[in-house]
Automatic annotation (TrEMBL), chain A:
Name listed for the protein in its UniProt record: Uncharacterized protein
Organism of provenance: Sphaerochaeta globosa (strain ATCC BAA-1886 / DSM 22777 / Buddy)
Keywords, ordered alphabetically: Membrane, Transmembrane, Transmembrane helix
Lineage: superkingdom: Bacteria
Transmembrane segments: 77-105, 117-142, 173-190, 218-237, 244-265, 285-304
Automatic annotation (TrEMBL), chain B:
Domain Transcription regulator PadR N-terminal, first and last residues per copy: 23-90
Origin superkingdom: Bacteria
Protein's name according to its UniProt entry: Transcriptional regulator PadR family protein
SUPFAM superfamilies according to UniProt: Winged helix' DNA-binding domain
Length: 326, 114
């Protein structure tokens, strides 16, 4: 058989799933031979293969399913998350780089400072782009459903009837931005816990936490933050309060709160040297922390109560289900 | 002329939808890829080889066609013919086509394009 045909066929089936390759190769070869009609001159072979088009196009036809890194149904969400993450990561990295330069021991020039900031912002943006893209590519590959719920006229009617149940777009985006900033702070706390400290002139800074004791708890906090973040994404996607969504959101909030209370009352994570700076003793410190927890608890309850009022009191199913007058 | 590529595109789209119907209609008798290409070409249905071969395979995986390898000739060939499911689908597709045709003809008749 002509060398060109062999190469053409191989190049085509290379892009197909392994189980189809042998069969398609045999069939395609036979078809090409038929098209040649016995004339195996190089000119005729070239003409026939040109008529068949590029192996890549042919393989695409055989696959029949388009391949995407990120499918069209996920793309809008991808773009939105990418924008938010880039904004947050960019700003936070910039801030952190600036702040860390002020505490650096060796003096630096303005030019060096700017280039240092630009470099770290660039590398942070590149890696956030990479990670967001990889996450969404995996979601696309396993066809995770990110679409809104099946849209029907009932949804439209309940939208008209109870506009107050709408979740404001800005609120969910605000949540996402806030949580992303918080997550980056957690990352910093995990990697450089000693940065949170009292800085004094002519003395070494006194860190607030004991790094080794704190680290394992931070991971748990990251997990609860990611959970709350997912709920915020869900709120953004669904746009309207439902009982199940409220339950999920409340659960995430309470979990976050409980974790905070749990973490802040692990007394071994605080650096005794830090506490000694203030005239307050450990007992006093514990009272302050506990009071803070109570305040946080009350605030969470108020916010949950507000959401619950929106979800339960303002739902008027009778209005939303009534058929329109004809 | 600006209109030309638009027209070509529209005609291609128009034809693409009917290809399956054309292919199924000629597979009562078993055919291999190239012979089917010629049968269709003789009946003025122009279909590219690189469209037809993958289409046959797709229809087979959908269960509309059956295939068998003929190894008696010098070259082995893969023959396709309608499966019973394919025959049913062809019948329904054909009647859908005729119905659509009637309606469209009526539309065109109103404006005396026909």
């Amino acid at each position: 058989m002509h060398d060109l045909i062999t190469r053409y066929v191989e190049e085509t089936v290379r892009n197909l799933p392994p189980k189809d390759r042998t069969e398609v190769a045999l069939e395609l070869e036979a078809n090409i031979q038929d098209m040649l009609g016995g004339d195996t001159s190089t000119e005729k072979v070239e003409e026939t293969l040109l008529a068949l088009g590029s192996p890549a196009t042919l393989a695409r036809q055989y696959r029949s399913k388009e391949r995407y890194l990120i499918g069209p149904e996920t793309f809008d969400l991808y773009l939105m998350v990418l924008k938010i993450v880039s904004l947050v990561v960019g700003l936070v990295t910039m801030m952190i780089t600036f702040v860390s330069m002020f505490f650096a021991s060796e003096p630096t020039s303005i030019g060096l400072m700017i280039s240092k900031v630009l470099a770290s912002v660039f590398s942070a943006l590149t890696s956030s782009f990479l990670w967001v893209t990889i996450t969404f590519a995996i979601m696309s590959y396993y066809q995770v459903n990110t679409a809104l719920e099946e849209w029907d006229i009932k949804a439209l009617r309940s939208l008209e009837a109870v506009p107050t149940r709408l979740i404001k777009k800005g609120d969910s985006i605000g949540d996402m931005v806030g949580l992303s900033i918080f997550f980056v702070l957690l990352l910093v706390m995990y990697n450089r816990p000693e940065l949170i400290a009292i800085y004094r002139k002519e003395a070494a800074p006194i860190p607030l936490f004991i790094a080794d004791a704190l680290k394992p708890y931070i991971i748990g906090w990251m997990v609860t933050t990611i959970l709350t973040f997912s709920v915020a994404v869900m709120k953004y996607a669904k746009r309207i309060w439902k009982t199940s969504l409220f339950a999920l959101s409340a659960l995430a909030d309470l979990l976050g709160l409980c974790y905070f209370i749990f973490l802040s009352t692990r007394w071994k994570i605080y650096n005794p040297a830090f506490l000694n700076v203030f005239p307050a003793s450990m007992d006093r410190w514990q009272i302050i922390i506990k009071a803070a927890c109570v305040v946080l608890l009350i605030l969470t309850m108020i916010s949950l109560g507000d959401d619950a009022y929106t979800v339960f009191r303002r739902t008027r199913p009778n209005v939303s289900e009534k058929a329109p007058a004809r | 002329m600006k209109e030309e590529p638009i027209l070509t595109n529209l005609i291609t789209e128009l034809k693409r939808g009917t290809l399956t119907l054309c292919v199924l209609s000629q597979l009562e008798e078993k055919q291999y890829g190239y012979s089917l290409l010629q049968v269709l070409c003789d009946k003025h249905i122009a279909i590219e080889a690189n469209t037809l071969y993958p289409l046959l395979r797709r229809l087979e995986t959908q269960g509309l066609l059956e295939s068998s390898w003929d190894t008696t000739e010098a070259r082995p060939r893969k023959f396709y013919s309608l499966s019973s499911k394919g025959r049913t689908i062809l019948g329904e597709l054909a009647s859908a086509w005729r119905e659509q045709n009637t309606h469209i003809n009526a539309l065109l008749g109103e404006e005396s394009y026909a």
